């Protein structure tokens, strides 16, 4: 063969294969995010907590007015899920940056991803045994599952930079979110049928909910096999010199990165913006089922149906936001999405009880902006990250997501505790979208890309 014969560039083909495998982790973990964390866990835990506090389940005519005692503090059963999520996110703030540093120092990133996913899925599977008045058991196993979920997402998101180039990221991230909503939606559809028609298949409502919780854990564990097998090991680059074992070296890596943050002020400004607007998004997601059941008076089957609608609308929303970003830039599209979020939490103040049409219209609006804003935030931030520190920077990103996003859930829980209504609790979240949007306006995209040493996409 002639020595000058060109050799085919297999890079794009190999990236495309790994991107498809990576999409399936969004598909896998969305089962936990939707069926378990999004829809069933919070209302079901409240039911268990009301049983423990009052000896019955609260309803329209007989509200549970007693509290649960935790370390001498009285907690309203209706606020318990918000406080559990708050504790989980505070613990995540401590753990995720260390996990990110460990991931950046090892080539076995997919092993770490799968390990956290499978431990989290095992903990989530234990929710099948959440019965009677075992609210403390349910709170603890969900805490473990949620922490592992966040840790796996840190590693998964960091892989975005390693399997795609800068000009591909908005598209790849948006397709990943679309996969997530499609996968989570399919399982949610099956669980919707189980919960809605539980009598027809000989199940109590409680057993139908428990089986659905278990299905989310099994789905998460099973589909994690695809990215685990399909993404090659990525050798670390630019690691800091440090002595000791992996944990000790990871602490050294993390400390060096934290000191180096002053060299990336644009990334820090974006992280602050993300802290606020994502607090609002995550709290809406975590509290929507409570709002639908406990405030608007819909049963679990109707709320599952609304979430199902959100899932499938969000598939199109994520793709549409990705295409819009290709034309006008991710930052502008995210800002437009935040305006829509402000409208949504304002409308929630006035949605009539048991008005199904209004409830479904609100769900549709949420679906349109939900996947799009999150997908573009992920790809936009990826442009501001220096090479070799992907997992550490994404750990800080998720410290704002699931690690320090305690302000939103705490605000929601406190407003409900003092007002006795979920309507003002939802509306209070408008503060987070407003502050986040104002901070995002201050982010200088061009400078951030230069600071990180990345290539500038054609449209930013």
TrEMBL record:
<feature type="transmembrane region" description="Helical">
    <location>
        <begin position="333"/>
        <end position="351"/>
    </location>
</feature>
<dbReference type="InterPro" id="IPR024671">
    <property type="entry name" value="Atg22-like"/>
</dbReference>
<feature type="transmembrane region" description="Helical">
    <location>
        <begin position="266"/>
        <end position="290"/>
    </location>
</feature>
<feature type="domain" description="Major facilitator superfamily (MFS) profile">
    <location>
        <begin position="266"/>
        <end position="460"/>
    </location>
</feature>
<dbReference type="Pfam" id="PF11700">
    <property type="entry name" value="ATG22"/>
</dbReference>
<feature type="transmembrane region" description="Helical">
    <location>
        <begin position="207"/>
        <end position="226"/>
    </location>
</feature>
<feature type="transmembrane region" description="Helical">
    <location>
        <begin position="80"/>
        <end position="99"/>
    </location>
</feature>
<feature type="transmembrane region" description="Helical">
    <location>
        <begin position="23"/>
        <end position="46"/>
    </location>
</feature>
<protein>
    <submittedName>
        <fullName>MFS transporter</fullName>
    </submittedName>
</protein>
<feature type="transmembrane region" description="Helical">
    <location>
        <begin position="302"/>
        <end position="321"/>
    </location>
</feature>
<keyword id="KW-0813">Transport</keyword>
<feature type="transmembrane region" description="Helical">
    <location>
        <begin position="111"/>
        <end position="130"/>
    </location>
</feature>
<keyword id="KW-0472">Membrane</keyword>
<feature type="transmembrane region" description="Helical">
    <location>
        <begin position="136"/>
        <end position="163"/>
    </location>
</feature>
<dbReference type="InterPro" id="IPR050495">
    <property type="entry name" value="ATG22/LtaA_families"/>
</dbReference>
<dbReference type="InterPro" id="IPR020846">
    <property type="entry name" value="MFS_dom"/>
</dbReference>
<feature type="transmembrane region" description="Helical">
    <location>
        <begin position="175"/>
        <end position="195"/>
    </location>
</feature>
<feature type="transmembrane region" description="Helical">
    <location>
        <begin position="393"/>
        <end position="416"/>
    </location>
</feature>
<dbReference type="InterPro" id="IPR036259">
    <property type="entry name" value="MFS_trans_sf"/>
</dbReference>
<keyword id="KW-1133">Transmembrane helix</keyword>
<keyword id="KW-0812">Transmembrane</keyword>
<feature type="transmembrane region" description="Helical">
    <location>
        <begin position="357"/>
        <end position="381"/>
    </location>
</feature>
<feature type="transmembrane region" description="Helical">
    <location>
        <begin position="422"/>
        <end position="441"/>
    </location>
</feature>
């Amino acid at each position: 063969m002639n020595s000058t014969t060109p050799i085919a560039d297999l890079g794009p083909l190999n990236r495309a294969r790994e991107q498809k495998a990576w999409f399936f982790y969004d598909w896998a973990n969305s089962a936990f995010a939707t069926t378990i964390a999004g829809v069933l866990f919070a209302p079901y835990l409240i039911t268990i907590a009301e049983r423990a506090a009052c000896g019955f389940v609260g309803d329209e005519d007989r509200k549970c007015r007693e509290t649960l005692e935790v370390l001498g503090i009285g907690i309203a059963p209706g606020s318990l899920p918000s406080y559990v999520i708050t504790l989980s996110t505070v613990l995540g703030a401590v753990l995720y940056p260390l996990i990110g540093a460990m991931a950046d120092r090892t080539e076995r990133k997919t092993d770490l991803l799968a390990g956290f996913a499978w431990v989290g899925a095992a903990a989530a599977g234990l929710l099948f045994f959440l019965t009677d008045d075992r609210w403390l058991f349910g709170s603890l196993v969900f805490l473990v599952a949620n922490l592992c979920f966040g840790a796996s997402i840190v590693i998964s998101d960091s892989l975005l930079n390693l399997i795609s180039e800068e000009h591909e990221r908005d598209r790849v991230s948006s397709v990943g979110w679309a996969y997530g909503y499609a996968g989570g939606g399919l399982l949610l559809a099956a669980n919707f049928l189980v919960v809605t028609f539980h009598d027809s298949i000989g199940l109590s409502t409680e057993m139908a909910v428990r089986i659905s919780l278990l299905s989310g854990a099994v789905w998460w564990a099973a589909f994690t096999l695809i990215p685990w097998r399909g993404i090659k090991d990525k050798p670390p680059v630019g690691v800091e010199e440090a002595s000791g074992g992996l944990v000790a070296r990871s602490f050294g890596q993390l400390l060096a990165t934290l000191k180096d943050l002053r060299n990336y002020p644009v990334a820090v400004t974006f992280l602050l913006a993300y802290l606020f607007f994502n607090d609002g998004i995550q709290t809406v997601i975590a509290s929507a089922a409570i709002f639908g059941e406990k405030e608007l008076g819909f049963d679990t089957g109707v709320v599952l149906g609304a979430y199902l609608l959100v899932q499938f609308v969000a598939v199109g929303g994520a793709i549409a936001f990705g295409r819009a970003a290709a034309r006008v830039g991710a930052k502008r599209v995210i800002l437009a999405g935040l305006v829509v979020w402000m409208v949504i939490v304002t409308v929630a103040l006035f949605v009539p009880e048991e008005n199904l049409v209004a409830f479904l219209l609100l769900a549709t609006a949420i679906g349109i902006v939900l996947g799009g804003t999150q997908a573009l935030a992920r790809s936009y931030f990826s442009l501001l990250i220096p090479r070799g520190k992907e997992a550490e920077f994404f750990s800080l990103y998720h410290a704002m997501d699931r690690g320090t996003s305690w302000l939103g859930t705490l605000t929601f829980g406190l407003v409900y505790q003092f007002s006795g209504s979920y309507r003002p609790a939802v509306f209070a979240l408008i503060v987070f979208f407003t502050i986040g949007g104002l901070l995002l306006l201050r982010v200088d995209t061009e400078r951030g890309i230069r600071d990180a040493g990345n290539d500038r996409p054609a449209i930013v």
